Amino acid sequence: MTQHSDGVRLQHMLAHASExxxxxxxxxxxxxxxxxxxxxALVRLVEIVGxxxxxxxxxxxxxxxxxxxxxxxxxxxxxxxxxxxxDLDVLWDTIxxxxxxxxxxxxxxxxEQTK
Length: 115
Fold this sequence. Notes:
Blueprint: H1 3-24, H2 29-34, H3 36-54, H4 58-63, H5 69-81, H6 88-113
Helix pairs in contact: 1-3, 1-6, 3-5
């Protein structure tokens, strides 16, 4: 994969992680239990973040070692392969606590790439 492709994948990660965080803004954990469409949307957004991460080259992952690649991919795998037993607490915690620092780091990386 080329660096350009890695940049596109990083942008995809940023866009979908940001959308997930935006989607829960002003909502409570209980809203997730009651709203099936919210559940499905958030699961899909987090899956895409992880899928885009799997498409970043090994070189890109080494270059941006501040991204917890294995954790991001692991969450994607957990959602895809454990589709019948998704823990909404883990999903909510991921969006509330794990995605904001990931978003900040992706902003930093992508800002550096444009300089």
